[in-house]
Design brief:
The chain is built from five helices and two strands. By secondary structure, it is mostly helical. It has a domain of 92 residues: Four Helix Bundle (Hemerythrin (Met), subunit A). Strands 1-2 form a two-stranded antiparallel ribbon. The longest helix has 21 residues. It starts with 9 loop residues before the first strand and ends in a 24-residue tail after the last helix.
Length: 145
């Protein structure tokens, strides 16, 4: 742990001094990021299903932010994350903008298949994401419109 007497730059967290190296070590990898992506992907689906397009768009944007973070902290997955964002999330975004449930759902289901294929390509075939068969209980997805 760095101290203020160190010759390396440090910052005060309010509890301890942290060096740039300390900050680098605590950055989240995909094992920490992807569970949140999964939660938001779940909320994205049921938001769109409820025609809460504003919430669906919000969840999609948050998924992109998380995946972009993953490209920084785990660059070896950049190509797959970028492709998923461009192709799969891009197709979902088209459905959201058009407020077209059928178009969205086709893209969403393809996204699940592609995500699970990426897991296989990265020797993580034991990670198989599936959509829960009920909406997330922590949000009211009723559209405000």
């Amino acid at each position: 742990m760095s101290t203020p007497d160190s010759d390396k730059p440090v910052g005060w967290s309010g509890k301890t001094y942290l060096s740039i190296d300390d900050l680098a070590v605590i950055q989240p990898g995909l094992a920490r990021i992807m569970p949140e992506v999964g939660q938001r992907y779940w909320k994205l689906y049921y938001s769109a299903k409820a025609s809460n397009w504003v919430m669906a768009d919000f969840q999609l944007g948050e998924i992109k932010v998380l995946m972009e973070l993953g490209t920084i902290t785990r660059p070896k997955y950049t190509e797959h994350l970028d492709t998923f964002m461009k192709d799969d999330l891009g197709a979902m975004e088209e459905g959201i903008k058009a407020r077209d449930w059928e178009k969205f759902e086709v893209a969403f289901q393809q996204g699940i298949r592609n995500a699970n294929d990426y897991h296989k390509l990265n020797d993580k075939e034991y990670i198989v994401w599936k959509l829960p068969d009920y909406p997330p209980p922590d949000l009211d997805l009723t559209p405000l419109e």
